[in-house]
From TrEMBL:
Protein species of origin: Streptomyces evansiae
Recorded superkingdom: Bacteria
Lineage: Bacteria, Bacillati, Actinomycetota, Actinomycetes, Kitasatosporales
Name of this chain's protein: DUF3073 domain-containing protein
Listed InterPro entries: DUF3073
Feature: compositional bias, Basic residues: 1-12
Biased composition (Acidic residues): 64-73
Residues covered by region (Disordered): 1-85
One Pfam family here: DUF3073
Length: 85
């Protein structure tokens, strides 16, 4: 094992002994790991789950509508393709 791996292993074991010995002090662990205590996201902007900005959702809607039209015509997408040998 290289020195970096050995040091990481020692740090891991030390943390396990320190925090898994019964009464875990989660606030101390968070401070040691550098966790933020604020409720704001790290970049300071609130997160909004918006499908309007999601290009995948737009493509999914577009191609889902195309598939529905093909099924209504009685054609499957694979039957309308021609394969050259």
């Amino acid at each position: 094992m290289g020195r970096g791996r050995a040091k990481a292993k020692q740090t891991k074991v030390a943390r396990q002994l320190k925090y898994n010995s019964g009464g875990t002090d989660l606030s101390r662990l968070a401070n040691e790991l550098g966790a933020s205590t604020s409720s704001q996201p790290p970049n300071g902007k609130p997160f909004e789950d918006d499908e309007e900005d999601d290009p995948y959702a737009q493509y999914a809607d577009r191609y889902d509508a195309d598939d529905d039209e093909d099924e209504a015509d009685g054609q499957s997408p694979s039957s309308s393709r021609h394969h050259d040998a």
